[in-house]
Design brief:
Keywords: ATP synthesis, Cell membrane, CF(1), Hydrogen ion transport, Ion transport, Membrane, Transport
CATH class of the largest domain: Mainly Beta
Subcellular location: Cell membrane
Structural class: alpha+beta
Protein name: ATP synthase epsilon chain
Distance between the termini: 25 Å
CATH topology of the largest domain: ATP Synthase, domain 1
GO molecular function: ATP binding; proton-transporting ATP synthase activity, rotational mechanism
Helix content: 25-40%
CATH superfamily of the largest domain: F0F1 ATP synthase delta/epsilon subunit, N-terminal
Order of helices and strands: EEEEEEEHH
CATH architecture of the largest domain: Sandwich
Number of helices: 2
Family: Belongs to the ATPase epsilon chain family.
Shape: elongated
Low-confidence stretches: none
Number of strands: 7
Strand order of the largest sheet: 1-2-4-5-6
Radius of gyration: 17 Å
Mean pLDDT: 92
């Protein structure tokens, strides 16, 4: 059993509500300046997140299982052993709809091609971001969505 004093609370929140909320021993994510791992008694932090995967190592009662969440940017705030990730969108691996993510990937690729043909840098950037989001969702689902 995990020592109760060594547990942190991890929540992922979007405009649609709470996507994830569990006790854990560790949370790891990609911030815009690189990988970050937070454990019990980490210094307080607020940092922006990149599009990527959040990994949450659950407590010993949960057999140290690791949950995977696709996060499309946002922020993490950590203090008093509570980590809160606020994102525009986030999905647990098991909840990602592969067909929807594949459709989003195809649309983004088409938009990139159209933007390239029009030499429209803004549309190109928007399409690249949409593509990264779709690829992230597919990666998390295909590798961890059991």
């Amino acid at each position: 059993m995990a020592d109760p004093e060594k547990i942190l609370k991890v929540s992922v929140v979007t405009p649609d509500g709470i996507v994830y909320s569990h006790n854990a021993t560790m949370v790891a994510m990609r911030a815009i300046d690189g990988e970050r791992t937070i454990m019990y008694d980490h210094l307080p932090i607020v940092t922006p997140l990149a599009i990527g995967e959040v990994r949450v190592k659950r407590t010993h009662e949960m057999n140290d299982r690791v949950d995977h969440i696709a996060v499309n940017g946002g922020y993490i705030e950590f203090s008093n052993n509570e980590a809160t990730i606020i994102a525009d969108s986030a999905e647990r691996a098991r909840n990602i709809d592969v067909e929807r993510a594949q459709s989003a990937k195809k649309r983004a690729e088409q938009h990139m091609q159209e933007a390239k043909e029009k030499h429209n840098e803004r549309e190109m950037l928007e399409a690249e971001i949409a593509l990264r989001r779709a690829v992230n969702r597919l990666h998390v689902r295909e590798n961890y969505g059991k």
